[in-house]
Amino acid sequence: MNPNQQILFDVPGPRAQRRIRIATVLGALAVLGGLAWAVHRFASYGELAAERWQPFTTWPIWRYLLDALWATLLAAAATAVLSATLGLLLALGRLSAHRPVRWLAGAYVEVFRTVPVLLLIYVTLFALPQYGLNFPLFWKLVVPLVVANSAAFAEIFRAGIKALDRGQTEAGLAIGLRRGQVMRLVVLPQALLQLTPSLVSQLVGLLKDTSLGFVVSYTELLYSGQVLSSYTNLLIQTFLVVALIYLVVNASLSKLARVLQARNGRFTVRGRAAEPDPAAPLLTRGGTR
Amino acid sequence: MDALTAHLDELGHGLVTTVHLTVVTTIGALLLGVVVATLRVCPVPLLRSVGTVYVEVLQNLPLLALLVLFVFALPTIGITFPLFTSAAIVIAAYEGAYLAEAIRAGINTVGVGQAEAARAIGLTFSQSLRYVILPQGLRAVVQPMGNICIALLMNTSLAAAVGVVELTQAANNVNLVEAQPIAVFTGAGLAYMLLALLIGRLAGTLERRWAIVR
């Protein structure tokens, strides 16, 4: 909670404290009531019985689910690497000095930012094979995800590059670097550092997108849950466990994004910032070469 | 092109379903977003935690997993809704979490002096939120909320994966009959782009009309 929200109300006096206590009790009752209702539902349909949850304490089931999680992570990693690279190229294209390059990159981003991923997946599933492009299952999931996510990454990169102080570019040009060098040595290192939190949050979105493997029947987490539940007939249990796995993985990633935000995008705590090196401003990477 | 004109009826029906789903869901998500954002800034610690847990859970689960859970798994404990209603509830709940975060960001942009002034003239928490903070906070985030609505439009296509015949599914069905993927899918893609453009324009207009000149 930041101080701005705290300012919406004063330090509670006796009457406000009484009201807060009443609201707390009512809120707690509502939450508990909801939980009790859910438990009652589960119990009255026999879904709470021990033997319907027992399988999820056994290793074979968990090995299956962990294999599925591995497939999810693999698809997410491939998508992340490819779409971040493509996104960076597109962002540079949109900022290019050549009009046709700018136009092409802009058109790509605008089109694929506003077309649903599922439509792209249907295109790779049902349209491309007619033209001889029949990818393996893994790529049928990853290719459409890359096409859609690279547009999102391009927008993140472009915003980050534009947000950087113009003086940095001007200084780079003034000391005689070429445009490409300025981008590579001056602008990108700083912009990427600033962007790390947004890039990590984009990873969460991307990992969630891999659940579309459900549609292409690539055995990632959600589709594996579907397969598992059709064997065991433990529908709600399986999907709740699958949801829990997604939640744990994504919440850790989101947490990482927040930590990075607080640390200005650095993975390590900046201990050295406490005692600034007086010579530091002169020792830039470009200068020591 | 013939494939498109021959099945205009089916595709039009899909388009209407997509628009219907988008409008219903946007309204639901907006209401939910305001409620959850209010929970997250209210003076009661328990309710603040409830809001935080809601946002964390909904933002970290894939929408498709929620849809599958709701549509295929909940019937086993006797909770069933019509397909369209299920999809609308789940998408509204999911996008509501994102809108709540946008609205909270808007609340944070309102100057501290505004809240202090509101309390100084004796407004309670809910009054100051209703008459002072939210009217200003919401104006500051019209554009981000427009972007979330565009994301919502694209996410309505996921309802196809659980059986709602909206635009994406209609296009797919037509393609299975006609086998003219380029015409059919490009048509559907263009329709989505137009709808997204429309939402973007609307958000732009509203932002200009409501902007506060400071």
TrEMBL record, chain A:
<dbReference type="InterPro" id="IPR035906">
    <property type="entry name" value="MetI-like_sf"/>
</dbReference>
<comment type="similarity">
    <text>Belongs to the binding-protein-dependent transport system permease family.</text>
</comment>
<dbReference type="GO" id="GO:0043190">
    <property type="term" value="C:ATP-binding cassette (ABC) transporter complex"/>
</dbReference>
<feature type="transmembrane region" description="Helical">
    <location>
        <begin position="185"/>
        <end position="207"/>
    </location>
</feature>
<keyword id="KW-0472">Membrane</keyword>
<feature type="domain" description="ABC transmembrane type-1">
    <location>
        <begin position="69"/>
        <end position="257"/>
    </location>
</feature>
<keyword id="KW-1003">Cell membrane</keyword>
<dbReference type="InterPro" id="IPR010065">
    <property type="entry name" value="AA_ABC_transptr_permease_3TM"/>
</dbReference>
<feature type="transmembrane region" description="Helical">
    <location>
        <begin position="68"/>
        <end position="91"/>
    </location>
</feature>
<keyword id="KW-0812">Transmembrane</keyword>
<dbReference type="InterPro" id="IPR000515">
    <property type="entry name" value="MetI-like"/>
</dbReference>
<dbReference type="GO" id="GO:0022857">
    <property type="term" value="F:transmembrane transporter activity"/>
</dbReference>
<feature type="transmembrane region" description="Helical">
    <location>
        <begin position="20"/>
        <end position="39"/>
    </location>
</feature>
<dbReference type="InterPro" id="IPR043429">
    <property type="entry name" value="ArtM/GltK/GlnP/TcyL/YhdX-like"/>
</dbReference>
<dbReference type="Pfam" id="PF00528">
    <property type="entry name" value="BPD_transp_1"/>
</dbReference>
<feature type="transmembrane region" description="Helical">
    <location>
        <begin position="137"/>
        <end position="157"/>
    </location>
</feature>
<feature type="transmembrane region" description="Helical">
    <location>
        <begin position="227"/>
        <end position="249"/>
    </location>
</feature>
<dbReference type="GO" id="GO:0006865">
    <property type="term" value="P:amino acid transport"/>
</dbReference>
<feature type="transmembrane region" description="Helical">
    <location>
        <begin position="103"/>
        <end position="125"/>
    </location>
</feature>
<protein>
    <submittedName>
        <fullName>Amino acid ABC transporter permease</fullName>
    </submittedName>
</protein>
<keyword id="KW-1133">Transmembrane helix</keyword>
<keyword id="KW-0813">Transport</keyword>
From TrEMBL, chain B:
<feature type="domain" description="ABC transmembrane type-1">
    <location>
        <begin position="15"/>
        <end position="203"/>
    </location>
</feature>
<keyword id="KW-0029">Amino-acid transport</keyword>
<dbReference type="InterPro" id="IPR000515">
    <property type="entry name" value="MetI-like"/>
</dbReference>
<protein>
    <submittedName>
        <fullName>Amino acid ABC transporter permease</fullName>
    </submittedName>
</protein>
<dbReference type="GO" id="GO:0006865">
    <property type="term" value="P:amino acid transport"/>
</dbReference>
<keyword id="KW-0472">Membrane</keyword>
<feature type="transmembrane region" description="Helical">
    <location>
        <begin position="20"/>
        <end position="42"/>
    </location>
</feature>
<keyword id="KW-1003">Cell membrane</keyword>
<dbReference type="GO" id="GO:0043190">
    <property type="term" value="C:ATP-binding cassette (ABC) transporter complex"/>
</dbReference>
<comment type="similarity">
    <text>Belongs to the binding-protein-dependent transport system permease family. HisMQ subfamily.</text>
</comment>
<keyword id="KW-0812">Transmembrane</keyword>
<keyword id="KW-0813">Transport</keyword>
<dbReference type="GO" id="GO:0022857">
    <property type="term" value="F:transmembrane transporter activity"/>
</dbReference>
<dbReference type="InterPro" id="IPR010065">
    <property type="entry name" value="AA_ABC_transptr_permease_3TM"/>
</dbReference>
<dbReference type="InterPro" id="IPR043429">
    <property type="entry name" value="ArtM/GltK/GlnP/TcyL/YhdX-like"/>
</dbReference>
<feature type="transmembrane region" description="Helical">
    <location>
        <begin position="63"/>
        <end position="94"/>
    </location>
</feature>
<feature type="transmembrane region" description="Helical">
    <location>
        <begin position="182"/>
        <end position="204"/>
    </location>
</feature>
<dbReference type="InterPro" id="IPR035906">
    <property type="entry name" value="MetI-like_sf"/>
</dbReference>
<dbReference type="Pfam" id="PF00528">
    <property type="entry name" value="BPD_transp_1"/>
</dbReference>
<keyword id="KW-1133">Transmembrane helix</keyword>
